Amino acid sequence: MEVVIVPDAKAGGELIAEAMAALLRRKPDALLGVATGSTPLPVYEALARKVRAGEVDASRARVCQLDEYVGLPAGHPESYRATVLREVVEPLGLPEASFMGPDGSAEDLPAACEGYDRALAEAGGVDLQLLGIGTDGHIGFNEPCSSLASRTRIKTLTQQTRVDNARFFDGDLEQVPHHVITQGIGTILDARHLVLLATGEGKAEAVAQTVEGPLSALVPASALQLHRHATVVVDEAAASKLKLADYFRHTYANKPSWQGL
């Protein structure tokens, strides 16, 4: 896979935003898969700046969600749908109809999961899926030992994940849902281009295992090794445990093959 080492999170955001902009110039109605959390915010901010500056027209772009809490009421500000609308859809000036996501409040959740996979396929598939990574190597909510062939499904959050996410619920752990719907690893691998962004020393071991370790369900992100076009963008801190860091610096030099294979 391509590994691009950048100076800091802002540089990583700019690089990936330009990749998204280049995709939209080639394919104005591209389907962009987005992730939540603090790591991808520089990407969305940089892309929104490009839209405001007239560098790219995103008016026909479509956006799809990686995961969603189960059981939060419609419109809850900490639902991932509300988060994506607030951080991605609105800043890009897109209509809400351009957004796709799983229904975490559906009465028949397994059917909702199957329906979301089907909707992604019927939309022509995800053109570029942006991913973050957990310190244990998880992507989406595919925790260690998730099936590498898994499809969109319901997952139980670990206690540590709920504790980590309590900060978004005023620190009240009781408000944090116990379950989520997440795209499975197999679903994620269906995207045409996978772009993983990781920053900070805390992600260094997970990045090293993802890129240089064996393919293993213990490190779900290692499934990116199976993909025909996966790009990993890391800052110097997150790259600190890569044995081949110098090779990656020389080979890609901030110029990954964004246009795919």
UniProtKB/TrEMBL annotation:
Keywords: Allosteric enzyme, Carbohydrate metabolism, Hydrolase. Allosterically activated by N-acetylglucosamine 6-phosphate (GlcNAc6P). The active site is at 67 (proton acceptor), 136 (for ring-opening step), 138 (proton acceptor), 143 (for ring-opening step). Residues 10-230 form the Glucosamine/galactosamine-6-phosphate isomerase domain. It comes from the Bacteria. The record marks 146, 153, 155-156 as: Part of the allosteric site. It is an enzyme of class 3 (hydrolase). CDD domains: GlcN6P_deaminase (cd01399). Its EC number is 3.5.99.6. GO terms for molecular function: glucosamine-6-phosphate deaminase activity; identical protein binding. GO terms for biological process: carbohydrate metabolic process; glucosamine catabolic process; N-acetylglucosamine catabolic process; N-acetylneuraminate catabolic process. One of its GO terms (cellular component) is cytoplasm. InterPro entries: Glc/Gal-6P_isomerase, Glucosamine6P_isomerase, Glucosamine6P_isomerase_CS, NagB/RpiA_transferase-like. Pathway: Amino-sugar metabolism; N-acetylneuraminate degradation; D-fructose 6-phosphate from N-acetylneuraminate: step 5/5. It catalyses: alpha-D-glucosamine 6-phosphate + H2O = beta-D-fructose 6-phosphate + NH4(+). Catalyzes the reversible isomerization-deamination of glucosamine 6-phosphate (GlcN6P) to form fructose 6-phosphate (Fru6P) and ammonium ion. Belongs to the glucosamine/galactosamine-6-phosphate isomerase family. NagB subfamily. This is Glucosamine-6-phosphate deaminase. It comes from Streptomyces globosus.
